[in-house]
Write a structure and sequence with these properties.
The chain has 306 residues and is α/β, with parallel strands linked by helices. It contains twelve helices and nine strands. Helix 5 packs across helix 6. It binds N-carbamoyl-L-aspartate (NCD). N-carbamoyl-L-aspartate binds at residues 50-51, 122, 128, 131, 161-162, 222-223, 263-264.
Length: 306
C-alpha cells in the first residue's frame, strides 16, 4: 500500500463500509479478534504521533500485536544498513510493516523486497496514502458526499505529502473541483497537476486564502514542512500570508458553513480560535484514522472485522 493509485472507487467504497463497523470496535462497543496472532511492526524514521499510534491502535483493536521502532539512530540503519536489508529482516518477523521514511520512494523500495504488506506512512515529500483515505472518509461523514464538492487546499503544497495523496484520490470522484492556494515557491508540483488534468480533475491555483475560501465546501489547511528546507526562513515568511484565522473566515462570510480539515500537527497555519466553529473537523478527522486503518488492515489481510 504505497500510493493512493492502488485504490479505485469500488475498493474505496468497500473500505468506507468496513470502517463504519470498525468505528464501533474502536469505540469499545464490541470486541474483534480478526487479527489475533498477527504482528504489526511500525518503522518510523521521521517524527509522528497520530499516524504511528493510530496504526498501532488499529491493529490492537483488531486483536493483533504491535512492535515499534521510532528513531533511525536506534536502528541498524545508523550502522550503514540499507533500507532494503532492514526490510528483508523485519519481513521475517512481522505480518505487516508500516514505514515512515524521509525519502520519496522509500515505501516502494521496501515493498519491492518484502513478502508481507508494506504500508506507506509517509515517504518524505512523496505520498501519505492512508492520511488521504481518512481525509476523504471525514469529508464523506461531514458533508454526506464527495462527488461534486469543491475542495480548497492551502499551505505548503510543494512538500506536503498529504495534499499530494488527497488530490490524486479526489480524481476517483465525479465533478470534483480543487483550488490550490500557496506562495508560488510552495506550489503543487507541476507533474502532479498534469496527472490531475489527465484524470479529469478540474483545478485552479490562487494566490491568497481569501480567494480560496470563497466558493469552497471544504478547506484543507497544511503547515510549512520546515524539515524539508536547509533554511526555512524565506518560505516561512511567504507562508505567513496564508494563515487561516477565524477573523478571515468571518470576513469571507464562511465561518458557519465551511468544513475545515487539517492533517495536523498545526503550527501557526491555523489559529485556535477556529476550533469552536461548527465546521472545524480536524480533531474528528484525526480520530477517523483508527477505523480507517482498521478497515485497511481488514482489506490487506482479507478478513472481516467481526
Ligand atoms: C502529516 C505528515 O506527516 O505528512 N502528519 C500526519 O501524518 N497527520 C502532516 C504534517 O506533518 O504536516
Amino acid at each position: 500500500m504505497v500510493s493512493v493509485s492502488q485504490f479505485d472507487r469500488d475498493r474505496l467504497e468497500r473500505l468506507y463500509q468496513v470502517a463504519g463497523v470498525c468505528e464501533r470496535i474502536a469505540a469499545g462497543e464490541t470486541v474483534s479478534r480478526a487479527l489475533a496472532g498477527r504482528l504489526l511492526i511500525n518503522l518510523f524514521f521521521e517524527p509522528s504521533t497520530r499516524t504511528r499510534l493510530s496504526f498501532g491502535s488499529a491493529f490492537l483493536r483488531l486483536g493483533g500485536m504491535v512492535e515499534s521502532t521510532v528513531d533511525e539512530s536506534f536502528s541498524s540503519m545508523a550502522k550503514g544498513e540499507t533500507l532494503e536489508d532492514t526490510i528483508r529482516v523485519i519481513d521475517g518477523y512481522a505480518d505487516a510493516i508500516v514505514l515512515r521514511h524521509k525519502e520519496k520512494g522509500a515505501a516502494a523500495r521496501a515493498a519491492a523486497v518484502a513478502t508481507r504488506p508494506v504500508i506507506n506512512a509517509g515517504d518524505g515529500p512523496g505520498e501519505h496514502p492512508t492520511q488521504a483515505l481518512l481525509d476523504l472518509y471525514t469529508v464523506l461523514k461531514e458533508r454526506g458526499r464527495i462527488d461534486g464538492l469543491h475542495i480548497a487546499m492551502v499551505g505548503d503544497l510543494l512538500n506536503g505529502r498529504t495534499v499530494h495523496s488527497l488530490s490524486k484520490l479526489l480524481g476517483r470522484f465525479e465533478g470534483v473541483r480543487i483550488t490550490f492556494a500557496s506562495p508560488s515557491i510552495l506550489a503543487m508540483p507541476p507533474a502532479l497537476l498534469e496527472e490531475l488534468s489527465a484524470a479529469g480533475v478540474s483545478w485552479r491555483t490562487v494566490d491568497s486564502v481569501d480567494r480560496a475560501v470563497g466558493e469552497a465546501d471544504v478547506l484543507y489547511v497544511t503547515r510549512l514542512q520546515a524539515e524539508r528546507f536547509a533554511d526555512p526562513a524565506a518560505a516561512a515568511q511567504q507562508i505567513a500570508h496564508f494563515v487561516v484565522s477565524r477573523d478571515l473566515l468571518e470576513r469571507a462570510g464562511r465561518s458557519q458553513d465551511l468544513t475545515i480539515l487539517h492533517p495536523l500537527p498545526r503550527v501557526f497555519d491555523l489559529s485556535t480560535d477556529v476550533d469552536s466553529l461548527p465546521g472545524a473537523a480536524y480533531f474528528r478527522q484525526a480520530h477517523n484514522g483508527v477505523p480507517i486503518r482498521m478497515a485497511l488492515f481488514c482489506d490487506l489481510f482479507g478478513v472481516d472485522p467481526l
